[in-house]
User: Fold these one by one.
Assistant:
Number 1:
Amino acid sequence: MFLDKMFPRAILHVDGDAFFAACEVSLNPKLKGKPVVTGLERGIASAMTYEAKAKGVTRGMRLFEIRKICPDVIILPSDYETYSIFSHRMFNIVRRYTTVVEEYSIDECFADLTGLDSSSGLSYTEIAMAIKRDLEGELGMTFSVGVSTSKVLAKVASKLKKPSGLVIIPGKEIEAHLMKLPIEKVWGIGSQTSLFLWRQGIHTALEFASKTEEWVKEKFSKPHEEIWHELRGVSLYRVCPGKIDEHKSISKTRTFTPASNNREFIFSQLSKNIENACIKARRHHLVAGEISFFLKTQEFRYSTLELKLSLPANVPEQILKVVIANFDKIYLPSVLYRASGITLRKLTDARVIQTDLFGQSIEVQSFNKMYKEIDALSQKYGKHTLFLGSSMKAMLDAQHTGDRGRPTVRKQELFLGETQRKRLGIPFMGEVS
Ligand SMILES: [Mg+2]
């Protein structure tokens, strides 16, 4: 037995069922019981109710195909403003029970319930039931809830009986729940790792968790070793109370000496900043909807350009494409520059966007896949093990000092990509009271 205690820690994971579609149904009860799909503005399904799923609709499916297999389908444009209001309400309901709530994505959160059983006189099962009841009663949709001794296991638990499941995995019952769980379904085990594990003859979470610590240490790096511990019920990943802040931004700036007017050199400095900003964005699973970049002259004057991205991005190729097309709008060959910088803004959860993009852009998907591998290499061998050719000159330039100066922005609005919503003439929704 991995763990002979019931709950050394009690971690809760909550996951909204078919969340976007469920928000639409909650707002419009006439939709209840009907096959509803969101994603009209993109031409593909971003979310669907269980009634639509039952008819074979899957995420990323094209709308004309959906209409073929499900003629009575109701297809709606995505309304992210409304979904994020529901999301805030969801997190606040869980916060009534504990302040230790981590907003993990728009429709998922973790909470640390450890000790609440003795202070409330309720069992963890009863607490989880109460949270689920409040969420479903107040938001008008179902949630899948899991409680176990670690974050990885809590996530396993919430997935087991979707939709509207409530699964409690105490320490003594871990093995029974991991027995039939395919290893690739475990949170944090990617496709490359799964492939490797299959080749080792490991197909279930239990087979992986049953390996010895020595074996795991020999074959894997730290993150997978941690997952191994978590699967055995040992809580290593803390629940970090925190909010998803849609307004925060990521900035990377660097001063170079001496000042230069060499276009290639200045661009490579900017390229390197973009790579660094993207590394940070990917580390936090964020994608940027807008960017701004600036050049600072020797006289400390700033030229800044703000740009909206047609698709949210966190890989440098996508952002560089836009910067290259606009670089000469702020660069003047006659001027000496001493710094460049990039800010990624309108940051949102990459995982939500990725589902939205599914089937939309093969290019984006292959970049995402490639950067997953690059990030893994960087973790192993150090940052900038691999870098873009456009950053080469900056990489070779050893003389740089940090610059945290705040630029005074000369605003120049440029919209490269109009939102689909605007194009379709769909108004933005305000606060839902
Ligand atoms: Mg969900």
Number 2:
Amino acid sequence: MNDLKIFLKNKKILITGHTGFKGSWLAQMLIYCGADAVGISLEPKIDPNLFGLLDLQKRMRGYFCDIRNFKKIKEIIAFEKPEIIFHLAAQPLVRDSYDDPLYTFETNIIGTANILQAAKDLGDVKAIVAITTDKVYEEKIGCFYEENDKLGGYDPYSASKAGAEMVINSYINSFFNPEFYGKKHHTLAASARAGNVFGGGDWLSRIFPDIVRSIFEKKEKLIIRNPDSIRPWQHVFDPLYGYLLLAKELYDGKREFSGAWNFGPDAKSYLTVENLVKQTFDIFKRGAYDINQDFVKREAGCLKLNSNKARRLLGWHPVYDIGDSVRIACEWYEAFYRGNDIKQITDCQIDLFFNKITKI
Ligand SMILES: NC(=O)c1ccc[n+]([C@@H]2O[C@H](COP(=O)([O-])OP(=O)(O)OC[C@H]3O[C@@H](n4cnc5c(N)ncnc54)[C@H](O)[C@@H]3O)[C@@H](O)[C@H]2O)c1
């Protein structure tokens, strides 16, 4: 058994956003490791969804509660008394943030403050990993971002996540300050900034699910809006692995792990959107697309993450390169659309991943 599995076994862990794409994978991983997982989220809004396919509602405790509702969030956290919190709940889409900026700001900024405040009020949480994004940085030439680079955010989603970072940083300074750890408080907190994540079980309006839908649901040809945008593409397992390692260090009281962390892919995984599409079509051996550029809902042209800090201090590095990542995600969707046992393939993929990290 590897260290992470031993560490996670029987730990009481709260995931906010456990009904979402990344949250469902994280929940399944925690269950696989024998953790006592509990979730807070909204009900899934799309069908199919990974949360439903994995039957997570029956396999872990969960609360359908809006993270903007501080009173209820505080009650749940006070009742559940988690030792570790992974905060993923958010409005996660740039395009939706243009349609509803206020909801995006409330959920992503105030929602984050509510979770941190409820944890502070409880006083017993040992580790908090709050998930933001690679989009928190003010855009700069070269677009290769380190943790200490200036925060920014052009569109409401990116700005809301930069806002969440300010909130997290303020809670770290004011209430979870590593300097006073063990004297004035018992909580260490960090933020995690990963790239564009894909993997089986995502059906949101994002490029990878769009590719999959264009192939298997054949309703319409794939439309690419930002063909030349360069993104840090990652299989969902890689950032989740980083979050777990980070939580372990915080839980173990290692003060130097408090703060912000980038978790980006290796250098070869920075593809343009169009190249990702071509590579995925190659694996499925079919697919066609049209380009229809969107100049209204602007998105950053290029995003690259410097993850040297995570590599050096956490010993984290991406396990899957872009080829593996696309192949593994494609295998999951193939299995789903063929009607195979999706719980089995999901656990099989998690098992393979944990075997790989044991050997690192
Ligand atoms: N998927 C990516 O490529 C990516 C990249 C960088 C960062 N992230 C971040 O990772 C996290 C998870 O993203 P995802 O892709 O799984 O998104 P998702 O939409 O699949 O999941 C979002 C989750 O948040 C919950 N949620 C949303 N609004 C809420 C509210 N007001 N109250 C309570 N719960 C609420 C949803 O119910 C869901 O469980 C987000 O914080 C997102 O910003 C995702």
